[in-house]
Specification:
Blueprint (H helix, E strand, L loop, with lengths): L9 H19 L6 H20 L3 H8 L7 H8 E6 L12 E8 L2 E8 L5 H6 L7 H16 L4 E7 L6 H5 L2 H14 L4 E10 H8 L3 E5 L3 E3 L3 H8 L6 H8 L3 H6 L5 E3 L10 H22 L3 H10 L6
Length: about 325
């Protein structure tokens, strides 16, 4: 399988290029046996990849989180949810494809699914507006949450957005108010809410559907109040210093778990979720299943526990 290598993966790219060259030579000549050398290089490639991913910087993790081949919301829904019935529109203005929402079955349990879809190719990215929702997207999410609460169905959210859409038309239709209402709706739910940051968790656009009883992040996902580029533009008036901003902002899953902002980290396949989508989706499914079982059996007031969880952030540091 051909991968889109990131800049810091160049040593792996070079080795894989040599492997491909040797395989081509071997296929073209029955007299040349290069199997031993190919196996040696394949082992070296895996070892090099493992070493690189053991020491990723926050900026490098941001690049992995944004990788174009990373599994997106629709991939997780296809892999984990059966009988999924998407619902469209906010019953007020329009449908917003940036947010996918509906009901289905997750391992036999009825669930409401709300997620941000970035798109997998040019056409779908334009359709889904790169995962950046407008007010109608958040109002659709609120509509699904209200239905889930009415019928006592747990809510699972999949977060992957650089942030809410910042256009003038979105602002004119009440973007900030829509995000606030979605956050309020999350806090008011009496049913279990589990959220997974599968790629980028950007600003209010993420928290609007991630105010959950349990918040998990994939190992190389990021979660922040603003993008590193945006922070660099504000702090240094230079977006090229995004690497410095990422280092200071504590955007990685490991930092956020230590700060008690998230509840758990979902391990990714070696080299990132884009290298083995099925394994990443399966690991995410196990984490969601465990969280839902725990919440359904807890017997606690889930709404009060959720509110207390977010009010306590930062108080015990």
């Amino acid at each position: 399988m051909a991968y889109q290598y990131l800049d810091f993966e160049k040593p792996v790219s070079d080795i894989d290029g040599k492997i491909l060259e040797l395989k081509t030579m071997s296929a073209g000549s029955s007299e040349v046996d290069l199997d031993a050398e190919i196996k040696r290089l394949e082992k070296k490639s895996k070892e090099t990849l493992a070493e690189i991913y053991k020491a990723l910087t926050p900026w490098q993790k941001a690049q992995v989180a944004r990788h174009a081949d990373r599994p997106h919301c629709n991939d997780y829904i296809s892999g984990l949810v059966t009988d999924f019935q998407p619902l469209a529109g906010d019953r007020n203005f329009a449908e917003d494809a940036a947010i996918v929402a509906g009901f289905g079955r997750f391992r036999g349990q009825s669930v409401a699914i709300i997620g941000q879809e970035k798109g997998a190719d040019t056409a779908s990215r334009l359709k889904h507006n790169f995962g950046m929702a407008k007010p109608e997207g958040y109002r659709k999410a609120v509509r699904i949450m209200d239905m889930a609460d009415r019928f006592q169905i747990p809510v699972v959210t999949l977060v992957d957005t650089a942030g809410a859409y910042p256009g003038l038309d979105a602002e004119a239709r009440g973007q900030a108010e829509a995000i606030a209402r979605a956050t309020q709706a999350c806090l008011n739910l009496k049913v279990p809410v589990v959220s997974v940051i599968i790629g980028e968790g950007g600003s209010g656009g993420a928290i609007a559907i991630a105010t959950a009883n349990r918040v998990h992040m994939l190992e190389h996902a990021i979660y922040s109040v603003i993008s590193p580029e945006g922070a660099a533009s504000i702090l240094w008036r230079d977006s090229t210093r995004a690497k410095d901003a990422a280092q200071s902002m504590k955007i990685t899953a490991q930092d956020l778990l230590q700060l008690k902002i998230i509840d758990g980290i979902i391990p990714e396949p070696q080299g990132g979720a884009h290298r083995d989508k099925a394994a990443a989706i399966d690991a995410t499914g196990r984490a969601i299943d465990s969280a839902l079982r725990e919440l359904l059996a807890s017997g606690t007031d889930l709404r009060e526990a959720r509110r207390a969880k977010f009010l306590d952030i930062g108080r015990s540091l």
